[in-house]
Design goal:
It is a single chain. By secondary structure, this protein is of the alpha+beta class. Helix content is about 60%, strand content about 10%. A hairpin with a 5-residue loop joins strand 4 and strand 5. The protein starts with a helix and ends in a 7-residue tail after the last strand. One of its GO terms (cellular component) is membrane.
Length: about 400
């Protein structure tokens, strides 16, 4: 198959094929294969043979004129009292196929009109009569249709590939944006801890009575290392902040945690106009601020999706402090979005990014996320986050 494709792309193939068919057609005109004598009008016969085979050499540079010339010569040959030579039929089929492949459908239909006219009313003296005209029409239609079908298939494959590449690019940009937003939020949390470490080391060095010189030197080194780490982290993650749209320092707030979850539920209840209930199960334990931020953002995004896809529907938010994990479940009884493992690649550019953001956050926390339709309808978002060691008070 690959050898045939390479042969079809050979630059000299049309010229070689035209030369071979011309030679075969001229040989048949001079030395007939049947018992009939040679044609009486040899110049006319030779001209029709050349007209129905030689234009194949121009299939790549002048396709439409070549196909028109071969069509005219092939249809005029029966009117001269003889059937077209055997070599004319492959040349005609090849040019019609290429016409259907490369030209618009309207052009292919126009080229089929002469064959329809010939099949409907051949001249009484035409060789082959109506059966030959019908057979010629069927062959021409098959060649044109085959080329058009391959053209349509290639265009459909190209569109599908372009849509797939566009969807992949959109999802990549969305995932990159979510990761940047998560990194910005976690940067605030980590920066707070590093700053606290630096302050505590400096305070211990200055306020501890009787501290040995070596201990003071090590505490000083700890403080310097913490400040250097904070500077390097800010430098590396500074590219993730959009200075043009960043909030003013006066409007920036600390990153939220589970302490603000009740306020979030109250705001969702007032905004959605439906019942939003918060249920806490298990023994409440202190959690790492980064894990609290992840859980808060999951609930926030799930409530936003519920308000968007199931406005006014009751929503339950459940926090379950299990052994070794925090389970966050948000369920509603509305229609909800379709439960997919990833956003639909054929959806609009902003569709599915809420679930994508939740998946990115859960993956960063080392947990798992499950989204599905509920057994009694609605939509369920369930995340399981492994518990980390709580931050020191």
């Amino acid at each position: 198959m690959s050898a045939l494709r390479r042969l079809g792309r050979a630059p000299d193939l049309p010229l070689v094929a035209a030369a071979a068919l011309c030679a075969a057609g001229l040989l048949q005109a001079v030395v007939p294969l049947d018992d009939r004598p040679p044609a009486a009008d040899i110049p006319l016969t030779l001209a029709l043979v050349l007209g129905s085979t030689a234009p194949l050499a121009f299939a790549r540079s002048q396709l439409l004129p070549a196909a028109t010339a071969v069509t005219a010569a092939t249809l005029l040959t029966p009117l001269s009292g003889r059937l077209p030579c055997a070599a004319a039929l492959p040349a005609l089929a090849a040019l019609l196929y290429l016409t259907g492949l490369r030209c618009p459908p309207r052009t292919a239909l126009l080229l089929a009109v002469p064959f329809v006219a010939y099949a409907l009313g051949p001249a009484p003296t035409a060789a082959g009569g109506k059966p030959f005209g019908v057979a010629l029409l069927a062959g021409a239609a098959a060649a044109l249709a085959a080329g058009a079908a391959r053209r349509a298939g290639g265009e459909a494959a190209a569109r599908s590939a372009a849509e797939g590449a566009y969807a992949h690019t959109v999802l990549e940009h969305a995932a990159r944006g979510e990761r940047a937003r998560i990194a910005r939020e976690l940067h605030d949390v980590v920066a707070h801890h590093i700053s606290t470490l630096s302050v505590q080391a400096e305070t211990a060095r200055l306020t501890t009575p009787g501290l040995p010189p070596l201990g003071a030197e090590r505490l000083l080194a700890i403080g310097d290392t913490a400040r250097q780490a904070l500077t390097e982290m800010r430098r590396l993650l500074g590219v993730l902040r959009d200075d043009a749209s960043a909030e003013a320092p006066a409007t920036r707030r600390p990153q939220p945690g589970l302490d603000q979850l009740l306020t979030l539920v109250d705001e969702a209840r007032d905004t959605a106009g439906g019942g939003v209930r918060l249920v806490v199960r298990g023994r409440i334990t202190p959690l790492d601020p980064g894990l609290q931020l992840t859980a808060y953002r999951i609930v926030q995004e799930a409530l936003t999706n519920a308000r968007r896809h199931a406005p006014g529907a009751p929503v339950d938010v459940e926090l379950h402090y299990a052994e070794g994990a925090l389970r966050v479940t948000v369920r509603d009884i509305g229609a909800g979005p379709a439960p997919t493992a990833a956003p639909d690649p054929h959806a609009a550019p902003d569709a599915g990014h809420g679930l994508l953001g939740m998946r990115e956050r859960v993956a960063m926390a080392g947990g798992t996320l499950r989204t599905e339709h509920g057994p009694a309808g609605g939509f369920v978002v369930a995340a399981e986050l492994p518990l980390r060691e709580a931050a020191a008070a």
